[in-house]
Predict the structure.
Amino acid sequence: MMQIPTLKGRWVALEPIAEAHREPLRQAADDERIWATTIVRAAGDGFDAWFNALLAERAAGRWYPFAVRRMADCLIVGSTSYLDISPKHRRLEIGATWYRPDTWGSMVNPECKLLLLANAFEVHDMQRVAFITDVRNLHSQAAIAKLGATREGVLRSHMVSQGGRMRDSVVFSIIAEEWPRLRKMLQARIAPN
C-alpha cells in the first residue's frame, strides 16, 4: 500500500484523507454544480456514504485519496485520488477529483496535478498515469488536455453513473518519457505572474 505524506505546493496542500476531513469536505461538497457529471453525488444526504466508501477504498489499498487545502485561506476545497493503483505494472489513475466552484479556473487544479504527477513519476517510479472522465464532461476533458495528456479514446458503456445511466468514458494518459517536458509546462503555468 502506498504511503504518501502531505504534498505541499505554493497554492495547495494535498493531505491524505482522514476522519478530521469529514466536516470540512462536507462543507466543500455542498454545491450541486460539482456533481452534475460525476458517478456519485456526495452532496447533502449522499456525503457520509461517499466519505465512508473513500475510507474503505483507502484501507483496502485500492485508492489513495487526498483532501485539497487551498493555501491562501487554509480552506478544504475538494478532493482528488490515486485510483487503480498497480505497482506491478507501474501505473495508476488520477481521478475522483472535484473542487468547490470558486476554485474552478484557478491554480488549484494545475498545481494538484503537478504534485500528484511528480509524486507518481519521481517518487513511485510509475510509467503511466491515466485520467478517465465522462464523455459528457467537456470541462474536465479540456482541463485534462491542458495538462498535456494524450487522449486515447472512449470506453463505451464503461461505468454506471448516477440514476443508472451507462456512462461512456474518455481515457487520457501521460507516460514517463513525456513527464519532464510536461512538468516544465505545468511549472510555468502555475508560476506567479
